[in-house]
Amino acid sequence: MGLLKGSASFVRFTVDGELPENPLDYIAERIALFSFKDIDDTYDEYSIGWVSILNMFDSEFDFASHIAGDYITLTLRVDERKVSPAILNKIVQKEEERIKKERQIPKLSRTMKVEIKERIKVELMRKAIPVPSTYELAWNLTESTLLFFSTNQKAHAVLEDFFKESFGLFIRQQIPYTVAEHLLDEESQSLLSKMTPEVLV
Amino acid sequence: MDLVDLIAEKRFLGQEFLTWLWWKSEERGGTVDVPEVGDVTLVFEKHMLLEFGEGESSEKIICSGLQAELQEARTGLQMGKKLEQARIRLDYNNYEFSFTLAAALMEFRSVRLPKTETTESDKSENPEEVEGMILERIFLFEELIRMVNKLFLMFLKVRVGDEWHDELPKIRVWINKAAVGR
Question: Pick from B92, B103, B101, B106: which is nearest to B44 by CA?
Fold first, then answer.
């Protein structure tokens, strides 16, 4: 669903800033540097990086290029280990009960409780399988615009930061006001800036 | 002004555009004459979301119904609500797009592209054909944005110019007439 097939939801960004000489080489280099690293076999909690739009397991771009005409097409993949609060609470309580029984004490100190919670969290986190999220994008190099195939605001913020980190370029979401500034001439722009909401009834 | 403030302060701009577009499409029975393009079929259908007020005190109503008159939505307009989301069918030059426009942030949701030979072809293993399919789909997504921006520019020219004083009374008549009953 999205860029490749089916119905799609997206927003458009403007890409600000200059690319160096030989932009395609630079982009390829940066994609390789910021490609996705798998964390399934590690204890890392979070991993973010670029993968091929055709296959989320292809972070080397062996099977498909990231270039299509004048566009850079990429998938942003984020893997995160998560433990649901309900599970964490359950296991923490179970462990607290076990320790109370073992040491034959009626109550645990605050420090001990904090210690148990931290330890259990680390243990559960290590056991959790990273949950993947993927977001496709198409970067128009000619117009310096970018289609991002998600309307999730949190994903937008993640993209803005990671895109800047990867390519040294800022992206700004196009909203009606900024699109209007772009479409109108100077005289109309000043009228636009003074515009206030109209009562339509 | 940074983007967060712009989004909050200028939220009305996209919503007024969408409301104007609904009126514009009904003014000539679902056809809009777009500069450089000609007549475009533009129909509001199925689903609408209206909004009133801001932040915590904001109210929203959702109306849906296939080819319905969307009576509730029209009444909502009369109560001073503005259109925030609408499902639109856009038909021109043998292209038929169907999409939901979320006005405040200009989000395109559940976009259905026109069916073309390239985008409909079975999954190909040939890299050149895959690239062709991707480029065709990107072209169509951007084509939709170009068309929406053309309509937006039509609205902006009216809205910042003197013409607004002529169109606003017509819109008001349309909203009142629509709510009184059809």
Answer: B101
